[in-house]
UniProtKB/TrEMBL annotation:
This is Putative cyclase. Residues 137-157 are annotated as: Disordered. It comes from the Bacteria. One of its GO terms (biological process) is L-tryptophan catabolic process to kynurenine.
Amino acid sequence: MSSELSKALEVLRKKKWVDLTHTFGPESPHFSAFTPANFETLFSHDDGFFAQSFTFPGQYGTHLDAPIHFVRDTRYLEELELKELVLPLVVIDKSKEAAADHDYALSVEDILAFEEEHGKIEPTTFVALRTDWSKRWPNQEQMDNKDEQGNSHSPGW
């Protein structure tokens, strides 16, 4: 391994790491328009090896959306370069606002106020929104947060 790469890894290992993963399975909360994930055991150890089949929508749980998800005639995930996925991270914490207003949406004014306090967000930065909605995991009903008419309420962009 090159000396430069070793130094880079040493720096990264000393940084604070935050694991944002959740165990994924048929009971995982999901967008209400999707059916629950299906896990089927194809072979067990009694057959000589363990193998499963998984069926679920691509936009299920925490994931990376391909540009094509929202914009017609753009790229799929496999068309993104790996280096495009390694970015500086900024987290805008609006968890208090989301707790008070379950329909809270981040505004341009919020971003400008963040920049006023913390400095300009560079164009190649990944901006994450903290709402603490993840604390409702893994309860589907709490994640959906439906009103009496069956409409979901959750914070977002």
